């Protein structure tokens, strides 16, 4: 959990605003460090976390979370964390074997046009488990869904519309019904002005998710070029649906990722420059 | 920053869980060390050498076990094939096992062209130093009088090399002797030998067959991380040549809107899944200059951990440009991974060039030397001025 980011977002592990859909997006950059922040943040605030780790192994997330002070293996054992390791589950679907006992979640790999229904069922069953208070089990807070990352589903052949449907279903289930939160990472590759047919999927997905979300953290490289000390800029954009009309607020920060966290500072105030 | 010792390895008393994946931080007490590998100083990752020492330096010390290196081929596939051969030759010398897959040539063709290792360690490159003028005392040379602002900057070291040697050197003019080569165990996958009848839009039979064959080799030879730790472990080096080309049955390189758009990306996802759960490392070459869709190239790059692109000067007008006469081509680093840690090791400079010498493939920072020659004719000076901005030659025209 990055303390500076907490103060920027005015959030703390003790008080988590319910029903938020946080979209982390990046363009020609890598915003996965923010996913690690939200993972450790929600685990610290004792919420039940359903994590779809589609691009990296469990060891990777566990090693980074250890540096941020949270143990994923312990959380998994206590039942606080429901982790789906996409890479491992996908192998049994991609290479069919005689005696495989695969979970149904990655079934969409077999036939991508079918959609992500089985993945949604997995999320729902993982999140619902927090409602029941079993004997001896701890009570966790409202469920949180984290997805890292959603654009890999496009690379695996799923339609952008199906991914938008999936995120809408998850938002209805997790954010509205169960009063939990949702964080998704979406990655884009091209420039914003280009209108290529091939990019239709990713741009449409980004626009659709930006419309659905309540808080958008958009990570980009520096517009002035490559710099070793400043890794990029983050644009934080709130969409508050207040009574007095739509009110969007944007803030721009630059950031640098280091071993145990990331530091955020207003433009031009990096320690490398001052 | 070196990883703290207390952070290495899990809870020391327990055995590693059976379904753990790669990137183990191997402590000395648990694992017999595998020849040809070393732990990274940055984050304790297990690294192997690619066979090219400057490439090892660029990748942060070496190629991490369990990752994929994507090489975007140059136009005639000469230098990318060379790097693939270096990678496989390094595997033979370190006694790792090899897995080579090709669609057009027989894998044996690549294996017979492996460069011969220089085993007597004669050619050890030294770091590039500034030439010292004889007779001049040290102090006055070090203390700059005019350009004193630049005093604290490090001396320009164009050749990329680290202080500790890891990896071997190869002599490109000779091929590896048959005895050395046959001592290494090599698995081959040649696409024409495997039947490819039909394919769906999202999965190509050729890629599925390759993935199945690779998984079968990993299981059979015991590279799985889930296999018992008591046996002596080895690394499997996977070399996939020209993936994505039309010979694999893929039309990525042929059409603007390919039918099998997601076949290669699905394969790369499966490859990453296989590698993360075994002691293997892969180098994939891809003819990216044939792929029209930049967005697709972006998603392919993101599914590989390391990615570099080669652009050779052969056949282009840069070959005769005197600015580039020392180099054979440019090298771009498209992606560096961040594995088990938040930060990635970004390269210092982004403008790199390579040259293939007889005993070394060196990657250097591209810097243009000052144009000090008196006999440069006006015609070529015009070419120089238009070719490249930051050279000092333009000012010669303003001769007062």
TrEMBL record, chain A:
Q: Name one GO biological process term.
A: tRNA wobble uridine modification
Under the heading Pfam families, the entry gives: ELP6
Q: Which organism is it from?
A: Fundulus heteroclitus
Among PANTHER family, the record links this protein to: ELONGATOR COMPLEX PROTEIN 6 (PTHR16184)
Q: Where are the transmembrane segments?
A: none
What pathway is this protein a component of?
tRNA modification; 5-methoxycarbonylmethyl-2-thiouridine-tRNA biosynthesis
- Similarity remark: Belongs to the ELP6 family.
Q: What is its main location?
A: cytoplasm
- Any idea which UniProt keywords this protein has? Cytoplasm, Nucleus, tRNA processing
Q: Which domain of life is it from?
A: Eukaryota
A single GO CC term, please?
A: cytoplasm
Enumerate the subcellular locations listed in this protein's record, separating them with semicolons: Cytoplasm; Nucleus
Q: Which Gene3D superfamilies match?
A: P-loop containing nucleotide triphosphate hydrolases
Query: Any idea what this protein is called?
Result: Elongator complex protein 6
